[in-house]
Amino acid sequence: MKKSVLTRYRVMALATAVMLLVLCTCMIFKYGFGMGADLTFVVSQAHGVLFMVYLVFAFDLSSKARWSFGKMLWVMLSGTIPLAAFFVERKIRAEVEPLVNGSPAAARA
């Protein structure tokens, strides 16, 4: 597996996670304080686009790493849970780096 597959996934996971936190903050301001509706709309659209790209890259990584359907689904859904993508990305990186370096036996251990 190429290193670029993991790098693309990592960049999109972090970008999606950051945008989700920004979106949550905007939602608090919109519904809690009644301000920032226009900014919330823009941030939600940006997060939606980034999330779709994240799904494509997560699927690509999962197919190359030969994950089960459940694991692939968990990784994809982590982009919808605030803060979860940070932890899932770190775990996936630690798991997939041995595959990138050419040591599949180390990745399974």
Automatic annotation (TrEMBL):
Cellular component, GO, one term: plasma membrane
Membrane topology, from the record: Multi-pass membrane protein
Domain DUF3817 residues, every copy: 6-93
InterPro entries for the chain: DUF3817_TM
Highest taxon in the source lineage: Bacteria
PANTHER family, alphabetized: MEMBRANE PROTEIN, MEMBRANE PROTEIN-RELATED
UniProt source species: Streptomyces subrutilus
Primary location recorded for the protein, binned into one broad class: membrane
Pfam families: DUF3817
Transmembrane annotation, as ranges: 12-33, 39-57
Protein's recorded name: DUF3817 domain-containing protein
Location of the protein in the cell: Cell membrane
Keywords: Cell membrane, Membrane, Transmembrane, Transmembrane helix
